Amino acid sequence: MTQVIRLDPERPRLDAIEQAASIILEGGLVAFPTETVYGLGADAMNEGAVQRIFEAKGRPADNPLIVHVSNREMLEHVAIDVNERAQLLIERFWPGPLTLILKRGSRVAPSVSAGLPTVAARMPANTIALELLRAAGTPIAAPSANSSGRPSPTVAAHVLEDLGGRIDMVLDGGPTKIGIESTVLDVSDDSPAILRPGWVTREMLIKVIGPIAEATSQDELRRSPGTRYRHYSPRAKVVLIESGSRDFIERVCRQRLKAGAVGFIGHTHVEINDELFHSLLLADDPRSYASSIYAALREMDESNLLAIVVEGIGERGEGAAVMDRLRKAASESVAEDQVDYTRRTP
Fold first, then answer.
1. What are phi and psi of 325, to 5 degrees?
2. What does the DSSP assignment read for 221-262?
3. Rounded distance, CA 93 to CA 112, Å?
4. Same domain assignment for residues 161 and 247
5. Which of 12, 142, 150, 277 is the most buried (most CB within 10 A)?
6. In the 8-state DSSP scheme, what is residue 68?
7. Could you tell me if residue 230 is inside a domain?
8. Residue 283 lies in a domain
9. 10 Å Cβ neighbour count for 2?
10. Do residues 278 and 165 share a domain?
11. Parallel, antiparallel, or unpaired: how do β-strands 193-196 and 183-186 relate?
């Protein structure tokens, strides 16, 4: 059985934190909240414990993990040769939703980095996560606490839905604040590059360290989790509407209804009177989408739908991160100026 402990997100009980830290140090798995999504944690220095993460999630072995730290001293056990750019970013954005790709320290469990000479590291901006790290006294490897490929968990119930019985403990700190995963920036060499967009935007990063590239090659992207496999997907097929009017959205939904039950998630009010049609309305801004989209996809899945139509949002600022996740979740995408659906390769 997976033990669940409900905690005050700002003042977590010390006994519960110490119990969770003991599990980590004994090679067990503990799910815990961060400001982005819930993470599935294991001792990053224990190869056997890290392997348990891959087994519990059904995660491909070549998909690296993010290592969480609570301070600069702990980072020294994880990474080497932390350059000036990385230092500036740490001072500005840690703790927070920014993961840095750095040169890997020799003590880190090999599976964490999927055999690469780099390591992904960040300091979470969440009291429960930081207290757990301090109590354990070891870096914690923690991908999202969900079955591989599923929507990331933003509440403890999502963790139990996917991993109940497979892990030792869940620290329930309520809903996460942001709702999508961290930005991943490669600063392991002289050419900084965004590997995964997130809440820390390109514009914010440029203000600190200057020009930044956007990684496109598979060799670059393999250094980061969440870049090369289909992710964030419910069981139903996801159709992403990149752009379109209300009439267009309704036509897409009605077309799908010919084959079975359909859900719609978006910021446009859609009027379809059909018992097989379900809709969830979100505010037209990145913050609302980020905090709600994974929960909305999971809620739709409970209705045994054939397809979920999702309306996209603008890609300025944080919107780029939201659209990145939606594109990775989608099987197909469509825009009003296109005649046919465009199938995307996950």
1. -70, -40
2. HTTSTTSSS--S--SSEEEEEEE--HHHHHHHHHHHHTTS-E
3. 23
4. no
5. 142
6. E
7. no
8. yes
9. 16
10. no
11. antiparallel
Query: For the segment 18-48, what is each residue's pLDDT rounded down to a tens digit?
Result: 999 999 999 999 999 999 999 999 999 999 9
Helix (H, G, I), strand (E, B) or coil at 45: coil
> Dihedrals φ, ψ of 245, to 5°?
-75, 170
Quick one: 120 and 259 in the same domain?
Answer: no
Task: Decide if 23 is inside a domain.
Answer: yes
pLDDT band of 231, cuts 50, 70, 90? low
C-alpha 340/C-alpha 68 separation (Å) is 43
CATH of the domain at 107: 3.90.870.10
> Helix (H, G, I), strand (E, B), or coil: what is residue 70?
coil
Q: Which two tokens stand for residue 58?
A: 């059904």
Is residue 227 included in any domain, yes or no? no
Say which residue the tokens 């801004």 belong to: 285
Q: Are residue 335 and residue 193 in the same domain, yes or no?
A: no
Angle CA(155)–CA(157)–CA(159) in degrees, nearest 5? Answer: 80
Q: Which two tokens stand for residue 83?
A: 């350059």
Residue that has been written with the tokens 């009017």 in this structure: 245
- Give me the CATH number covering residue 329: 3.40.50.11030
Pairing of strands 38-43, 140-141: antiparallel
C-alpha to C-alpha distance for 305 and 197, rounded to whole angstroms: 29
What's the Cα-to-Cα distance from 53 to each of 18, 48, 120, 232, 339, rounded to whole Å? 21, 9, 16, 18, 43
pLDDT, tens digit, for every residue of 65-100? 999 999 999 999 999 999 999 999 999 999 999 999
Question: Do both 145 and 55 map to the same domain?
Answer: yes
What range defines the domain where residue 301 resides? 237-343
pTM for the model stands at: 0.92
Are 255 and 184 part of one and the same domain? no
Count of positions (residues) in the chain: 346
- CA–CA separation, 327 vs 333, rounded Å? 8
